[in-house]
């Protein structure tokens, strides 16, 4: 499935949530969609924890 089709499905889901559930439902669907996207990237192995959480090194501190 191409990224365009996935984007279309996500946009339609957000549109339905906004229309039927209001702005709060729109935000909830958008937040859960973003969380699901990041979780999927982790499970695929495309994203590592170091990409999000950077450990500060004392030698780099100025």
Descriptors:
62 residues, mainly alpha, 3 helices, 73% helix, elongated
What is the gyration radius calculated from CA atoms? 17 Å
| Structural class by SSE content | mainly alpha
**Oligomer status:** single chain
Distance between the termini: 47 Å
Unreliable spans: none
Average pLDDT rating? 78
Characterize the structure shown.
- α1 packs antiparallel against α2.
- The radius of gyration is 17 Å and the shape is elongated.
- 73% of the residues lie in helices and 0% in strands.
- The chain is mostly helical and 62 residues long.
- This is DUF2273 domain-containing protein.
- It comes from Streptomyces ovatisporus.
Give the SSE layout.
Elements: H1 3-21, H2 23-44, H3 49-52
Could you give a short description of this structure?
The protein is mainly α and 62 residues long. The chain has helices spanning 3-21, 23-44, 49-52.
């Amino acid at each position: 499935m191409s990224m365009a089709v996935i984007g279309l499905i996500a946009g339609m889901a957000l549109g339905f949530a906004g229309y039927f559930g209001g702005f709060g439902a729109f935000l909830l669907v958008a937040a859960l969609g973003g969380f699901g996207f990041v979780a999927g990237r982790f499970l695929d192995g495309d994203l590592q924890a170091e990409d999000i959480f950077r450990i500060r090194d004392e030698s780099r501190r100025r």
